[in-house]
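Intended use. Records like the one below are meant for learning the mapping from a protein sequence to its folded structure. Do not use them to infer anything beyond what is encoded.
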Amino acid sequence: MDHYLSRPYENRDMATLLRFASEATAVRLPGLTYWNPGDVAWQLGMFPPGADLSGHVRMWEGASGVVALAIFEPPLHFAFDLHPRLGLDTSLADDVLSWVEQRRRGIVVGGGAVPVAYQMLGESTLSTEVLESDAARISFLEIRGYVRVERHSVRYSRDLDEPVGLAALPKGMRFRHVTDDDIEARAELHRDAWSVWGASSFSESRYRRLRANPVYDETLDIVLESAEGNLLSYCICWFDRENGIGHFEPVGTRPAFAGQGLGRALVMEGLRRLKECGAHTALIGTASVNEPALRTYAACGFKLVERQYYYSRLIGP
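Structure written out for the chain above:
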């Protein structure tokens, strides 16, 4: 039986976790994975600047390197993955879930602490997301008392060997990538775009930290700018060079400019740039209730390849 040691995440571990995500992606191809490298960068980048992540992010290591990763997002959501070459090692998976559940039990939830996106799960719960096709993980979670919630997200894929058309823009608008001079305006754009789902805490300091991540490419952080110089829509594309896969996270448009095709134009530009980088596949996802995004991604040539459901359980003290 293999022996694994666990420890808290430290800032110096980022490159190691990016490799873990890329390796897991490679093993699961042509299927989907739980974290592409850019997902790790984005998820860790969303913690408050200066936050001590030792209680929220934990790694399990063996002789060959990282074998498991768990990220607890207080107060009631977590993500985890085991290296797919291990299969579903239930003893290791038990250790991962035990750590997360212990962290959850140490938090008293109430007084509006639950983000809008998770309120439907209930204040006394703990939840994670599982690919609908991952029968082994579903069975494991059900044994641990987790049940499927009908809320889910959808995952799309697009073959970049197919032609990518040029995006048509209204007169005076242009695409460009973000520079250091845009940090304040770009952070404000994100907050405005996501305000339809509740107040966003995305700050200039979070954005600066994200831009410093080794997998971030400034030329794939794209904005759509009006003739007056205002930023109206944006996306970040992440390119996993080892696997030739690009993905979008996040994509947003100011609510005042929704419904004008700006999101579609921006995603098409992102596809074009990813193809220029050498990507053969592009991935994107969203909540199943996000009808505008579903229409946009279908119009950009993406095809539905997977659903990802929440599995939740009650957590007592």
